[in-house]
Task: inverse folding
């Protein structure tokens, strides 16, 4: 059987005009700022004016540790949102925006797949409403003002060797990771080592996603630390008088973007920090707006539950005062067999032994959600035609032993209709009482918070600090940052900091080699392993297959 590609399915969809979608969500026309016929920004004043409305139920979609076999987390999120509407519930999605780097690289977009997509998928995956360009511009304005200050006399006494702020571009470009700039003579700037991060790794992205309103955005931008003086004092964006201009660049980017699923269900898509580098969730503004518009809101956290979900629950929920009602853990039989040692080329064949060997990865994520965070959850098996009844029965039996139900999700093939069973289980879980809690308390020391995440969530034996990390913990605590939450920068491919350790490894120690404060975002980043903030393109980048015809119709985009 020959299947339509994602882009062919999306282009065949009869989209509704965005005004009708907004009306369905209860958003009056005066709050809409149209970007063509099928997407719009919603003024953040809508959130202020909706303060008296009750909040809906918040459902988090997360997943097992990612594999080359794919898990379909965004597809499941979109299909569940449609599935809830199919069973008569007023539902809405709140998802992240894709980064151009992975779209042109290897990961793909973030608009879902098959018959569970958000549209217009081409726009969403390519530029969208320009939010990421605004974030990059604000990031680079701060970098330019920093270097200009040094060039113009350096009255703040900034040490060029202790500058921590990098430039940003929304593209996978390894050539820019480590550079030397300011060359060419006295009038061309001060020569120094520098580098670029991908825009989704910029602290400005995290600030935009965690800001509660425009004034909070400006206050957070002001607190960003760009480097240190010769005598070790932090230098902020406020010291450079940069926050006002940065906020001016970001005032429209702060407004959530409204689109629709293939079935016309309203979805906010806004913000996109990476979960292996930053906190991996869509914006607080979009989530709060969605909760005022629907009885059930489906949101997603990046990568697996040890990264995206942990940060969603420990950072975003804490900062925004959010309380999830249920969690969906997405898995595939194919991915579980990969965790059990089966090569990618052999995943279509039934292999109960490998499946049983890979199941601890799923069960550990489920156990963490239930036992560490105190939330009810359901396992969504993203169905593939090669899944056998024996394999599906084995997954269901193992999950039931933990008191967790399994729902077969067929949203890729059937859209919302294929998400009915999952939607019904989610609604049931939302009515259950829960004992939601974070994995650590903020008043614990930095080291104790690191140990809590690594031992409770990753199931490591402990934490080892190397290099400057010991000195950095003392420095951060002395500067008054000890009560901030921790944002782990860790490989997404393992519970450990070693991407080769699949499944649910034991007997390992997490090595933290560097800690830095993101004072604007309001968290401390702990870097483990070999995490890079600027990816590179693969040998055959996806960009080679993308094209556009004389009518402006895009092809090759998934």
Result:
């Amino acid at each position: 059987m020959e299947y339509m590609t994602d882009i062919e399915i999306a282009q065949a969809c009869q989209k509704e005009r965005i005004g009708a979608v907004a009306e369905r969500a209860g958003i009056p026309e005066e709050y809409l700022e149209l970007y063509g016929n099928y997407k719009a920004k919603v003024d953040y004043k809508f959130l202020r004016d909706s303060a008296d409305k009750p909040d809906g139920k918040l459902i988090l979609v997360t997943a097992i540790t990612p594999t080359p076999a794919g898990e379909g987390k965004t597809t499941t999120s979109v299909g569940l949102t449609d599935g809830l509407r199919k069973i008569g519930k007023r539902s809405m999605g709140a998802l992240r925006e894709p980064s151009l780097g992975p779209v042109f690289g290897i990961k793909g977009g973030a608009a879902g797949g098959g018959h569970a997509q958000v549209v217009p998928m081409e726009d969403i995956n390519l530029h969208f409403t320009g939010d990421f360009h605004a974030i990059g511009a604000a990031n680079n304005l701060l970098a330019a003002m920093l270097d200009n200050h040094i060039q113009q006399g350096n009255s703040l006494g900034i040490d060029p060797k202790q500058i921590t702020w990098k430039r940003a571009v929304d593209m996978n470009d390894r050539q820019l990771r480590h550079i030397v700039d300011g060359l060419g003579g006295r009038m061309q700037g001060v020569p120094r080592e520098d580098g670029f991060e991908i825009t989704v790794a910029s602290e400005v992205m995290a600030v935009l996603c965690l800001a509660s309103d425009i004034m909070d955005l400006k206050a957070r931008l002001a607190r960003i630390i760009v480097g240190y003086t010769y005598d070790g004092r932090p230098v902020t964006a406020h010291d450079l008088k940069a926050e006002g201009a940065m906020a001016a660049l970001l005032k429209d980017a702060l407004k959530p973007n409204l689109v629709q699923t293939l079935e016309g269900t309203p979805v906010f898509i806004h913000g996109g920090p990476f979960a292996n580098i930053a906190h991996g969730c869509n914006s607080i503004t979009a989530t709060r707006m969605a909760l005022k518009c629907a009885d059930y809101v489906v949101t997603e956290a990046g990568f697996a539950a040890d990264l995206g979900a942990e940060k969603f629950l420990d950072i975003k929920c804490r900062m925004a005062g959010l309380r999830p009602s249920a969690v969906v853990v997405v898995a595939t039989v194919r991915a579980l067999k990969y965790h059990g040692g089966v090569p990618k080329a052999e995943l279509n064949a039934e292999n109960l032994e490998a499946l049983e060997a890979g199941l601890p990865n799923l069960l550990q994520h489920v156990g963490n959600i239930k036992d560490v965070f105190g939330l009810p959850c359901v396992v969504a098996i993203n169905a593939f035609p090669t899944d056998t009844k024996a394999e599906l029965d084995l997954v269901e039996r193992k999950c039931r032993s933990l008191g967790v139900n399994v729902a077969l999700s067929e949203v890729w093939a059937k859209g919302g209709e294929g998400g009915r069973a999952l939607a019904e289980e989610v609604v049931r879980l939302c009515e259950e009482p829960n004992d939601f809690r974070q994995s650590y308390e903020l008043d614990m020391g930095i080291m104790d918070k690191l140990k809590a995440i690594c031992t409770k969530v990753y199931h490591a034996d402990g934490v080892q600090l190397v290099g400057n990390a010991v000195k950095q913990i003392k420095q951060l605590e002395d500067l008054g940052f000890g009560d901030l939450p921790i944002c782990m920068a860790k490989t997404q491919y393992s519970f450990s900091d070693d991407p080769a350790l699949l499944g649910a490894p034991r007997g390992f120690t997490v090595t933290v080699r560097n800690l830095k404060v993101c004072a604007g975002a309001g968290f401390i980043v702990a870097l483990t392993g070999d995490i890079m903030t600027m990816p590179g393109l693969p040998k055959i980048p996806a960009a080679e297959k993308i094209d556009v015809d004389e009518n402006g119709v895009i092809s090759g985009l998934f």
Remarks:
- Residues 20 and 510 are 50 Å apart (CA to CA).
- Residues 131-151 form the longest helix (21 residues).
